[in-house]
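User: hey, got a sec? need ABC transporter ATP-binding protein folded
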Amino acid sequence: MVMLVGPSGCGKTTLLDLLSGHMAPVSGKITRQGTARTVYQQDGLFPWLTVWENVGIGLRSVPDPKQRDDEIAELLELVNLTSFKNHYPHQLSGGMRQRAELARVLAGDSDILLMDEPFSALDYQARLTMRRELARVLQKRPRTVVFVTHDIEEAAQLADRVLILSKRPATICQELPITIPRPRGLADDEVVEAMRMILRALGLNNTDGVTV
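Assistant: Yep! Here you go:
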């Protein structure tokens, strides 16, 4: 999992759009192996469809109905939403909607997940829960993940590599590997040190803070 951290407006979301193919580069070339799906700050669930139907959208190309239903059921079990399969998005909490969105983008076996601050609209407790859920889900269904965040805690808890971006025009000014095994607790000495490393790389003097 690669986390992109940098100043607001430096181009983190633009980079995801280039990786996804939603934007074409003005110059240079983007090389990507495999297919990519994107998770945004606001989920992309269709409000008129149930959770089951939303997840099934990514599996429309599967010709066998039983195989398709089995895959939907497995994904909903993976994100702990089996008992909510017949609910509509407006009947779910913010965290549950993001879990449904995660199941939706995992459907169809995309190779790369592009995540643009997917938990930023959630309250703090829900964000902590979603970090644990994401780490657990990816352990069972591994993917390459490129994840944009402003949250230093989030980067330290989830990342295998943190790329520090400069101000516009953005360049990668530092790469920080984080080799701590997951799951990671915020109070773990290694996680606290990882947060300090990220803050130092961002040039922030207050190394007691955890978010920018």
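Quick note: The helical segments are 12-20, 51-56, 65-78, 94-106, 124-140, 152-158, 189-201. Let me know if you need anything else on ABC transporter ATP-binding protein.
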